[in-house]
Amino acid sequence: MQDATFRMAIQFKARIYKIGINAVVNVPKQVTSALVATAGRIKIKGTINGFPFTTTLMPVKSRMHLLYVNMLMLKGAQTALGKIASFSIEQDTSKKLVKNYPMHSGLLKQLKVKKLFDDFQALTHARKKDILRYLNQLRGADTVKRNIGSVIFQLERKQKNVRIPLPLKRRS
């Protein structure tokens, strides 16, 4: 007995051509109509001439979805621009692995001392992740201290785009 979540892979052949600097193929409407789009994009997994890949089909205004074929896919599939390749694709329903970075102990201490913990928590998830990733990869104690100071300085001034390292100011 087959699993109820089993999905049949959809096969098609398409010529690889170039748009700008990108190698692409047009994905037939009957293929994309069998898949579920999110904001126009369709996450897929499949093979090109038997070589496995995962990617996203990109919508194009009033045209078919495009499948971008990168150099790794071209080499793995032993194909090239202008050639017709065999594709087998299906919806990719796997969950994206989200890496969470631990709160840096020095930052946590300063946030509590300065009563800015709630302000830090109010930042977007992406902004907090960037700050924590950056702080956790630093090695030198002075560098860590300086960057924590930078975050605290920006939070104290209620800046909206808190970031480290601070963007360089352009000289006029």
Q: TL;DR of this structure?
A:
This protein has helices spanning 29-32, 71-76, 105-113, 117-121, 125-137, 141-156, and strands at 10-15, 17-19, 22-27, 42-48, 51-57, 65-69, 84-91. It has 172 residues and is α+β, with helices and mostly antiparallel strands.
Q: Features of this protein?
A:
172 residues, alpha+beta, Elongation Factor Tu (Ef-tu), domain 3, three-stranded antiparallel beta sheet, 6 helices, disordered N terminus
How would you characterize the overall build of this protein?
There is one protein chain. By secondary structure, the chain is α+β, with helices and mostly antiparallel strands. It folds into two domains: 82 residues, AF2212/PG0164-like (Elongation Factor Tu (Ef-tu), domain 3), CATH 2.40.30.100; 75 residues, no CATH class. 31% of the residues lie in helices and 24% in strands. The protein has six helices and seven strands; from the N terminus they run βββαβββαβαααα. The strands form two sheets. The protein has a four-stranded antiparallel beta sheet. The protein has a three-stranded antiparallel beta sheet with strand order 2-3-6. α3 packs parallel to α6. The radius of gyration is 23 Å and the shape is elongated. The N terminus is likely disordered.
What is the CA-atom radius of gyration, in angstroms? 23 Å
Q: What is the general shape?
A: elongated
**Can you give the helix content as a percent range?**
25-40%
Strand order of the largest sheet: 1-7-4-5
Query: And the CATH topology of the largest domain?
Result: Elongation Factor Tu (Ef-tu), domain 3
SSE string, helix = H, strand = E?
Answer: EEEHEEEHEHHHH
Note the main sheet.
4 strands, antiparallel
Number of domains: 2
Name of the level-1 CATH class of the largest domain: Mainly Beta
Strand content: 15-25%
